[in-house]
C-alpha cells in the first residue's frame, strides 16, 4: 500500500489525474515564496528531518577526542494539509451523464494549503518553534518611510541594498510586499515619467513580488541565494485518499516543507 492510499479508493485513474491537475494548477497560481526561493528536494515523505546550518557560525569542534558541529541543528520537516470531500452521488451522476465532475473543492483545498505554505515561510510557527522570514531572530531591520509619497520607497530599498553591501551579502535580491504597499508603488514618480514600481523593478532586475498572506504594511528584501536560504521539500504538494464516510469520499491535499535560513544577514525587514 502506498503512503497516499489511493488504491483504497477504487476511483478511476482519470479522476485522480483531474484532481492532480486542479491541485497543481491552483498551487502554481497561488504560491509566491517558491518564485524566489531555491528548492531543495523533493526528498520524499520518509524524510522527516534535515540539518539546518548557521553559515556564519558553522564549525567543527574537536576537544579531548570528542567531535561535534557548532552552528548546526536538526529540524523536523512539518506537514501542511487541507481536507476536502467529494459527494458519491455527484461522482455517480457525472459518470452516468458523461460530464466532468466539479472539482472546485479540490482547487479550494489546494489554494488554502498553498496559502498556509506561504504563511509558514513568511512568519513561521511560534507555537512549534519554527522561524519565518519576518520572525527569525538576528535578521536585519530598517525603519520604513511612508511609501505612498515622494521617492521614499526607492530610497528605503536603496538603503537596504547598501546595507547588504556593508554586510557582504551579494547576489540576486528579491523584494516581497503586502498588497497595499505594492499598490502604493503604482504611481508616476514626478520628474521621471516612470511608475515607482518600474524604478524598483529595474533596481532589483524584476524580482518584486506581493502576497496576500502578509496582511498590510509589510515588506522584506532578501538575497535568496541557495547559500543563504532555501525551501526544503519532503513530499511535494499532492492529494491523498483518506476514507469513504457516509458514502462520500474524503481527500487530503498535503505537503511537507521547511524553510532553511542559513544566513540571517541576508534578510532585511522594513519595520
From TrEMBL:
Entries under InterPro entries matching the protein: ENCAP, Encapsulin_nc
Keywords annotated in UniProt: Encapsulin nanocompartment
KW Transport (keyword) present: no
CC terms in the record's Gene Ontology section: encapsulin nanocompartment
UniProt KW Endoplasmic reticulum keyword: no
Cell compartment(s), UniProt: Encapsulin nanocompartment
Entry superkingdom: Bacteria
The family this protein is said to belong to: Belongs to the encapsulin family. Family 1 subfamily.
Official protein name in the record: Type 1 encapsulin shell protein
Species assigned in the record: Anaerocolumna sedimenticola
